[in-house]
Amino acid sequence: MSYQDFLVEKKDHIAIITLNRPQKGNSWTLDTYNEMAKIQDDLHMDDDIRVVIFTGAGDKFFCAGADLELINKLTPHFISRDLPIYQGINTRWDRFIKPVIMVINGMTVGSGLELALCGDIRIASSNSTFSINEVRIGLNPDMGGTQRLTKVVGPSQAKRLIFTADRIDAQEASRIGLVDLVVEPEDLMKEAFSMAEKIAKMPPYAIRFAKKAVNLAVDAPLEAGLWFEEAGSTFCIGTEDKQEAISSLFERREPNFQGK
User: Which H helix or E strand runs over 123?
Assistant: First the structure.
């Protein structure tokens, strides 16, 4: 399937999604997000895909946020009625049943950073920069930035970045926990793909339950998280992949997990 604003490549068990609007700084429109929702539907149902890599086209921008023409057209009525739809598309990456690696290859601005925050893991090139600058244009971050940024870097750092709209480099982003790895630009996709391959070799159900459990740890009381760990292990212990894992250890060979 082809898309107007995205390139989607499937390689073995990995899907590589590229936001492909480099002439616009990989900014997004409503059509962009509607396409992204269709991609999510496709990848959700594709049992052969176990890991998603998300990046931006070119080497200047990961995502410059919302297209300025779109911002100029927004109304209170639209925000009240439609914003939750587009927030939900972001949240779907956060809650996606397969791990999502955000590969940040340049400037990441405003709602572009809010999109990056929806990934499970963030890998950035050493020349990437980050800013959440909505207040500069008279807006409140509204694509999950006040919530996810606070959970990732803590309230004080989140307030500093939001209130000042400062741009920080990849090294500072790593220091405050905004990104997980920083690599040289020429090694960025190689590093991301190597990590994705490692994850894709794991039992899919075990990865799925682990992701849900970690997400739950952020949002729920300890008792709820422990109960979910129990439920997840109860399910996973009955899978064919669990038996394959044990057999491969005894037979001293690499396991071949089937997602069953």
Answer: strand 121-125
